[in-house]
Amino acid sequence: MMKDEIRGLAAAILVEVEQGTFLDLALKDRRGGLAAGDPGSARLQFLTAGTTKWSGRLDRELESRLPKGLESLPPVCRAILRLALFELRHGDSPDYAVVDTAVNQTRDSGLAGLTSVVNGVLRTAIREGEPPLPEDPFGRLAAEHSHPEWLLRLVDEVHGVGSAAAFAAWNNLPPPIWVRVNRLVESVESATGLLRESGIEVYPGTLLPDWLLLGEGIDPATLAGIREGWLTVQDPSAGLAALAAAPAEGASAADICAAPGGKATHLGELGARVDAADSNRERALLLRESIARHASGGITPVEYGELLSRRESYDLVLIDAPCSNTGVLRRRADARWRLTAEEPARLAGVQSRLLENGAELVRPGGVLVYSTCTLLPVENEVVVDRFLSHHNTFMPDNLPGSIPEVFRRGEGRAASLPWKHGLDGSFVARMKRQP
Fold first, then answer.
1. What would you report as the CA-atom Rg of the chain, rounded to the nearest whole angstrom?
2. What's the pLDDT score for residue 297?
């Protein structure tokens, strides 16, 4: 597709996101007309994810140049302005081309009366540059890095002074692509060789050896290893859950929040016989696709209600609970703007109920593993401590040796911090039910 067509698609996606659609779903739907490997696909990702990430800073600048504010404009005009300003500040297209395209998009969208507004705002932005940042330290940090101020204050509070700045800077970097090698099918060495033979840059993982880092600009969907099931796209931090579970060969395992399937398939690679379910029907379809694509057996999709009825049936139960996603904001451009200050506490209630449900599936002597991709203690340590205080049949259990020391956080717990470990953020707790 031509650049102008890609910008048109990008504007349509941003309108959908503003109206409540998740960015990844909107991208998936709109990418359908692009051929595999089309460079337009990467550009569409760059424009939509970048504009969404930086929308806080972009909107601040646009508001300063619109006497009636952004909300006075139609949604598509807001999207066109945000895209154009993002390109002016972060893209490589000539300024005049960005402005001309935005003006033409506005006219082609049936908004000819607003072309002078779009032209004027963007030319002023080029001429004057960005408005000054706030003087207040957290206000300045929030504006500069395009994050909610309340979230940055909270991160600094729970992880120490200076953490918020490192957290915000990390989230605005392009997310790397990690793949996990299914060693039941290929060794790490052979997988590395196969990828390099196909012209892909590959770098070995350092903290967790079964992961490989791919070079920039790779579309994982085009990789034979993904289609054939000997590679799984997964950040190494997400692997801590299955490694903490450390199933014995042939152990029975239940994954009750399993979609899209990365942790369930990892448990299978480690030797478990896995029953996997998810309460969300759409995500359960993704789970079934992942299991069908995976190159090793022993993983069975199960209806969520049926799985919860199997009391005291499993050697191992994994609960990868829905959370605020604060550890993966680098990958989920829209998540920082969906999150509210009240959401972590609400999610902690959901997580506690899931732990209760999962605990009923663990046989005496079995293992219960709780994991999240959030950095907030209210969803991590607080949830686990509350559960243990009400269930004296469960105790913290020692982590296996496969968890590197750098991740360990006391008895039975591990966590990754992006600015410390160079990976997504995650938390995991291993507990054992007394015989």
1. 23
2. 80
Q: Is 89 helix (H, G, I), strand (E, B) or coil?
A: helix
CA distance 386 to 11: 45
Superfamily of domain 3-128: NusB-like (1.10.940.10)
CATH number of this structure's domain 236-433: 3.40.50.150
- C-alpha to C-alpha distance for 228 and 204, rounded to whole angstroms: 21
- What CATH class is the domain 177-233? alpha beta
Alpha helices in 298-417 (DSSP H): 304-308, 335-338, 343-359, 381-390
Whether the full predicted model's pTM is greater than 0.85, yes or no, is: yes
CA distance 220 to 231: 10
What own/partner pairs with CB < 8 Å and gap ≥ 24 does 205-210 have?
205/178, 205/236, 207/236, 207/404, 207/406, 207/407, 207/421, 207/423, 208/236, 208/239, 208/243, 208/404, 210/180, 210/181, 210/183, 210/239
Tokens of residue 110, six digits:
């049936």
Q: Where in the chain is the domain with CATH 3.30.70.1170?
A: 177-233
Domain with CATH 1.10.940.10 in the chain: 3-128
At 73-121, the pLDDT tens digits run: 999 999 999 999 999 999 999 999 999 999 999 999 999 999 999 999 9
Give catalytic residue positions.
373
> Do the Cβ atoms of 254 and 317 come closer than 8 Å?
yes
Burial 55-71 (b: 16+ CB within 10 A, else e): bbbbbbbbeebbeeeee
Position with higher pLDDT, 296 vs 418: 418
Q: What is the structure's pLDDT at 32?
A: 66
